[in-house]
Write a structure and sequence with these properties.
Largest sheet: 3 strands, parallel
Number of strands: 8
Helix content: 25-40%
Number of helices: 8
Radius of gyration: 19 Å
Shape: elongated
Structural class: alpha/beta
């Protein structure tokens, strides 16, 4: 049966009020079976970790299993987990859902990759996702590939400067 909801979503205006107190009240009231949070904007932003996020996630984990969704297909799940650990957020790899997992979990993507020669343009971390998919083989040459998977791009100067700043902050 379809669950009854007070409201189907929280609006941007409402989300500005979604702080530690309202989150605790909401979770305590609703007693969810699981909590799914987006990594960027909830756990961290360009400025670094969200204030008090480690404490909030720790509290939520006592109430229900916490899962993290990220559009990061460049890094492996274990790398993402280690980076979260650095900001005090302990999430096991089994509770992280990366867009890279679509290569082995989304039926439409599986059909595109099934038994194909694949070239991956990206870092070593993204190979974890590719090797879990039903490809025939990896090729070192894009000219030999039937499918090209892009998990990274070369940043322009402004993006490269931003990436360098984020790397420095993560150390």
């Amino acid at each position: 049966s379809t669950p009854t909801l007070l409201r189907p979503f929280v609006t941007l205006r409402d989300s500005l009020m979604l702080n530690t107190t309202t989150t605790k009240n909401l979770v305590s009231l609703l007693r969810p079976k699981a909590i799914l949070v987006d990594a960027y904007g909830v756990l961290y932003s360009d400025s670094g970790p969200v204030s008090q996020i480690a404490k909030a996630i720790s509290w939520m984990q006592k109430e229900a299993p916490v899962f993290v969704a990220t559009n990061n297909s460049y890094h492996s799940l274990s790398t993402i987990s280690r980076r979260l650990d650095k900001i005090g957020v302990s999430i096991p790899t089994s509770h992280i859902f990366s867009s890279g997992l679509g290569l082995s979990l989304v039926p439409e993507i599986i059909e595109i990759l099934k038994n194909k020669k694949v070239f991956v343009f990206g870092g070593d971390g993204s190979l974890e996702y590719v090797t879990k998919s039903p490809i025939a083989t990896l090729t070192l040459s894009p000219q030999d590939a039937e499918v090209i998977i892009m998990t990274a791009s070369y940043p322009d100067e402004e993006e490269q400067h931003h990436e360098q700043n984020m790397l420095i902050k993560s150390l």
